[in-house]
Amino acid sequence: MRIQAEQQLTWFAEAVDQVEPFLLSDDVFRSLGGLSLLPRQDLSLGTLILAADVLGATEVPLSQADRARAAGLLRRWEAISSKVPAALDRKAMAEARQRANLWNAYARDLLDSRREAARYPAEVRHRVALERLLERLKEDAASTLRGAIRQADQAIRLLLEPDGFIWEGFLQAVYPPPAYWFLHGILKGEPA
User: Fold this and answer.
1) pTM: predicted TM-score of the whole model, two decimal places
2) Three-state secondary structure call for residue 146
3) Using N-to-C axis directions, what is the helix angle for 5-23 and 64-83, rounded to 10°?
4) What is the rounded CA–CA span in Å between residue 158 and residue 110?
């Protein structure tokens, strides 16, 4: 899955404009109107964190003007998020549960049909967002969710072949192994 820094910047600007009411709502995911990004990204805490990771990467491929814009948006996001830590904790837990369910479902699909390996570059985004959300949670909650995905992780790890970093190279320093092992290989596809 290609991550375009310019698209992330456009999306992040729209998301930051709408984030305060979203954080105080019961929504875990919210559609962002007005954007025609492909692939479509809903507003969630996880997608905000991943976009911030992209825009905050040292080697992000953006012009100087776009880097300055990104830096301003990142400061604005930090200021907003520091005002509502309890809301962020609730969002992180709710989204982490949903992302864990999606990861488990993908692992089951993969075990049923190895042709699902072709979807891995897109599906692994759930696992990356989940890992970033787990970093926000208290240790006991994170441990419980890690237990809930343990079997899925083990199944996928057995099928993962080392093949370098699967996302854009400028993100490799943001998502290093071993914490992000799932971004550092490709899945074995359908057996011959």
Assistant:
1) 0.91
2) helix
3) 20
4) 12
- The single-letter DSSP state of residue 84 is -
Q: Minimal CA–CA distance to 95: which of 152, 124, 133, 151?
A: 133
For 78, other C-beta atoms within 10 Å of its C-beta total: 10
Half-sphere exposure of 152 (CA within 13 A, CB side): 22
CA distances from 87 to 27, 56, 137 (A): 11, 23, 12
- What is the Cα–Cα distance from 119 to 131, expressed in whole angstroms? 19
Answer yes or no: are the C-beta atoms of 161 and 186 closer than 8 Å.
Answer: yes
- pLDDT per residue as tens digits for the range 53-65: 999 999 999 999 9
| Ordered alpha helix ranges (H), the chain | 5-23, 45-56, 64-83, 85-112, 120-136, 139-159
Those residues of the chain that have pLDDT short of 50 are: 1, 38, 191-192
CA distance 54 to 62: 11
